[in-house]
């Protein structure tokens, strides 16, 4: 457990310093290739857990220390220990003893004995005063909801009746939903394969999503029957709504303008015989699109490294019948899958996202054919990126019509995160 705690703490330090959690973990796996799958899973669980409940854990640590710690490695190790004591099933004495040993291996610690004594005292003090400390932490909204104050204030203003449910959903573990590749296998047949493998699953409760299967327990993708053979993909139920909403039909020219890693593009190809162009401005993620298409056995597509806002560099001059614009955004609707977003994002980032979204929308509208449809998508719950963006777009474009959405569970285009799906926003425009 010592190595696991130490590497999890090092991960948290880097993320709180501004790095992406996904990138840091990948870096850790490369640097420590000897880690077993179980060790990797434990490090990931601790890292995600600390960041998921960082607001609460930070408040608890503040009550337990006489003064703030300058040593960030030691501070993160204590956060990891507090998370384990409160949220894991590990034996408390094992957590404390391992954390004490791990603290003595920290490079920046001068007096190993004093450091170990501090860790022991802090964690044991939490165990003794747990109930009182948790009540104290909950007195502040950041400690209660484990989100930044500006985030809480914004959600309260925009969703006065259910902002607490949105915040609580953001701190839960996400569901694992699959999208069955109908070109390879039927849904009932795949459910049978899962059952034979001892995996409990059921059809999505959203009756419109006929290819969605919800797993009772998450598991590694390589353990899914037929995953390598392209029978199935992992895709959130909310994200699976994009392809049906776009209403792409066989023979149409379709553009996925911000496509990586390719889940929505692949779904479009699974649903109809379309001529698809998928572009993304991240060259590494473009490679992932190609890999996903190859695994799924999909054809009739072009994958291009390019910027959606600069079509002159990649567009062939023929207008598209359908455009999917899954634009860059705050990602405020997917924090349970990416808890680092809560602490890396700044309120001042929102205007930058809004400006980029506006630019992409205006440019893509010019290459959409008359009578065509454009689906605007974000994984955000903030109105500036969603409803307000749509209102401004309609004011700028007299030939744009906002169409009603055919799927259930969407109010004014906004899907709020719940036990079935993440938070998304959808707006379908028709070019008159």
UniProtKB/TrEMBL annotation:
**Enzyme class, first EC level, given as a word:** transferase
Looking at the record, the residues that make up the SAM-dependent MTase RsmB/NOP-type domain are 166-432
Tell me the Gene Ontology biological-process terms attached to this UniProt entry.
Answer: regulation of DNA-templated transcription
Question: Would you tell me the Gene Ontology cellular component terms?
Answer: cytoplasm
**Keywords on record:** Cytoplasm, Methyltransferase, RNA-binding, rRNA processing, S-adenosyl-L-methionine, Transferase
Please write the reaction equations for the catalytic activity of this protein. Answer: cytidine(967) in 16S rRNA + S-adenosyl-L-methionine = 5-methylcytidine(967) in 16S rRNA + S-adenosyl-L-homocysteine + H(+)
Q: What is its main location?
A: cytoplasm
Q: What is this protein called?
A: 16S rRNA (cytosine(967)-C(5))-methyltransferase
Task: Say which species the protein is native to.
Answer: Nitrosospira briensis
Source taxonomy: Bacteria, Pseudomonadati, Pseudomonadota, Betaproteobacteria, Nitrosomonadales
């Amino acid at each position: 457990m010592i190595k696991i705690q130490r590497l999890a703490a090092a991960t948290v330090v880097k993320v709180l310093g501004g790095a992406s959690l996904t990138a840091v973990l990948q870096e850790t796996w490369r640097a420590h290739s000897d880690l077993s799958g179980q060790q990797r899973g434990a490090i990931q669980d601790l890292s995600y857990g600390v960041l998921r409940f960082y607001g609460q854990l930070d408040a608890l640590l503040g009550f337990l220390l006489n003064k703030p710690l300058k040593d960030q490695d030691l501070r993160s190790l204590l956060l990891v220990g507090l998370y384990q004591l409160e949220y894991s099933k590990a034996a408390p004495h094992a957590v404390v003893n391992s954390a004490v040993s791990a603290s003595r291996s920290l490079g920046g610690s001068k007096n190993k004995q004093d450091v170990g004594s501090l860790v022991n005292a802090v964690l044991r003090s939490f165990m003794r005063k747990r109930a009182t400390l948790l009540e104290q932490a909950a007195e502040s909204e950041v400690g209660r909801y484990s989100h930044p104050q500006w985030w809480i204030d914004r959600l309260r203003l925009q969703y006065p009746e259910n902002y607490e449910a949105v915040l609580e959903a953001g701190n839960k573990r996400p569901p694992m939903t699959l999208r069955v590749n109908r070109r390879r296998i039927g849904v009932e047949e795949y459910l049978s394969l899962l059952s034979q493998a001892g995996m409990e699953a059921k059809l999505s409760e959203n009756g419109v999503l006929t290819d969605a299967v919800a797993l009772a327990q998450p598991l590694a993708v390589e353990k899914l029957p037929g995953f390598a053979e392209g029978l199935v993909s992992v895709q959130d139920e909310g994200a699976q709504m994009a392809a049906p909403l776009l209403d792409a039909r066989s023979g149409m020219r379709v553009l996925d303008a911000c496509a990586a890693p390719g889940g929505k593009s692949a779904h479009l190809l699974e649903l109809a015989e379309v001529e698809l162009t998928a572009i993304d401005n991240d060259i590494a993620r473009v490679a992932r699109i190609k890999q996903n298409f190859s695994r799924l056995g999909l054809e009739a597509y072009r994958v291009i490294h390019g910027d959606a806002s600069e079509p002159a560099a990649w567009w062939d001059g023929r207008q598209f019948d359908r455009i999917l614009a899954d634009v860059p955004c705050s990602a405020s609707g997917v924090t349970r899958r990416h808890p680092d977003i809560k602490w890396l994002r700044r309120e001042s980032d929102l205007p930058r996202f809004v400006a980029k979204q506006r630019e992409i929308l205006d440019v893509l509208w010019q290459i959409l054919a008359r009578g065509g449809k454009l689906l605007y998508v974000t994984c955000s719950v903030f109105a500036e990126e969603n409803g307000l963006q749509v209102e401004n777009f309609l004011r700028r474009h007299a030939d744009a019509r906002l169409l009603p959405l055919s799927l259930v569970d969407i109010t004014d285009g906004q899907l709020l995160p719940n036990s079935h799906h993440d938070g998304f926003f959808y707006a379908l425009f028709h070019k008159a």
